[in-house]
Design goal:
Number of domains of chain A: 1
Number of strands of chain B: 4
Shape of chain A: globular
Strand content of chain A: over 45%
Radius of gyration of chain A: 15 Å
Structural class of chain A: mainly beta
Structural class of chain B: alpha+beta
Shape of chain B: flat
Largest interface: A-B, 47 and 44 residues
Oligomer: heterodimer
Number of helices of chain A: 1
Number of helices of chain B: 4
Order of helices and strands of chain B: EEEEHHHH
Number of strands of chain A: 9
Strand content of chain B: 25-35%
Order of helices and strands of chain A: EHEEEEEEEE
Helix content of chain B: 25-40%
Distance between the termini of chain B: 56 Å
Largest sheet of chain B: 2 strands, antiparallel
């Protein structure tokens, strides 16, 4: 299974609402996904129905990201960067990560790993996700 | 309205490191403690208490690396319908498939051998194949236990 990653349709809607002054909140939270087989990220995924089941325990549940910053990839300030460290408090199969808004009702970006990661207690996942508004051809 | 077609748009990049609970420096089990970290939200920095694994000896927070994953950029769609563009797209797609295969196998191999000594390239993913030919070699090497163990290229029969 190849790794897959995408910004979702509802994520784009939320980002455009932010830019156009609509009722929306910026990127803030992260949550791991779990299953026994690798997932596939899809643009049609939503917060209620992501590519896999959202983790609700073992340190991989929904939480505010450690850092959310505006950074630079090509053009100054063209990137939203999310960094987080998940610390396992028990065993869990982790298949991916979703990045959500501050209200925790929109799945902005979805990442599916290429394999299921069998996490054991005290394991850590250091995750860095970037949404780049690409201006380079 | 003037419509302009470009390759620009929204792009996603990500990276991930999976580490175990054994300190990479002291090689002793780490313990989970509540620590204070600097949390940043769009330039606003605040202190936050979180649970992290900490080495009781050196107070380091890094365990031994099990595997590092990096995002692979899918090939850009062809920009024209000429044979040259289509062949380039076909080559890029083939390379993408082989590279994805390699990284999937590498991650599975590294996860299955956590805590054991294996070639560092399978944990960190670098050096990564840069061409179709290198990707074919790397995939076959990863399948072959003897080549993996002795770091030998299965086609050239020499260290690579």
């Amino acid at each position: 299974m190849a790794q897959t990653q995408t910004v979702t349709n509802e994520g784009i809607t939320e980002l455009v609402k932010c830019c156009s002054g609509g009722t929306a909140t910026g990127v803030k939270s992260v949550c791991c996904l779990t299953d026994s087989t690798p997932c596939t990220a899809a643009i049609t995924s939503t917060y209620a129905s992501p590519a896999d089941t959202k983790c609700t325990d073992s340190g991989f549940e929904l939480a505010d990201a450690d850092t959310v910053t505006q950074s630079t990839t090509n053009t100054t300030g063209d990137t939203i960067e999310v960094d987080h460290v998940f610390t396992a408090s028990g065993s869990k199969n982790v298949t991916g990560v979703i990045i959500c808004n501050d209200d925790d009702d929109v799945n902005v970006m979805e990442t599916c790993f290429n394999a299921v990661l069998p996490m054991e207690s005290s394991d850590t996942i250091t995750y860095e996700g970037k949404i780049v508004f690409d201006q380079t051809a | 309205m003037v419509e302009s077609v470009t390759n620009r748009g929204l792009r996603v990049e990500w990276g991930m490191e999976h580490r175990d609970g054994i300190c990479e420096l002291c090689n002793i089990p780490m313990v989970t403690r509540e620590v204070e970290i600097d949390s940043e939200y769009y330039g606003k920095v605040s202190k936050r208490k979180v649970n992290r694994v900490v080495c009781p000896k050196c107070l380091g927070m890094k365990g031994r690396l099990i595997v590092k994953n990096v995002s692979i950029k899918p090939p850009s769609p062809p920009s024209c319908l000429s044979l040259k563009c289509l062949i380039k797209y076909f080559k890029d797609s083939l390379f993408f498939v082989l590279l994805s295969n390699y990284h999937t196998r590498r991650v599975l191999y590294a996860e299955a051998h956590r805590g054991e000594k294996i070639l560092e390239r399978y944990r960190i993913g670098q050096p990564s194949p840069q061409t179709i030919w290198q990707a074919i070699h790397a995939n076959i090497k990863l399948k072959c236990p003897i080549c993996r163990k002795y770091n030998v290229d299965p086609f050239l029969f020499r260290n690579k």
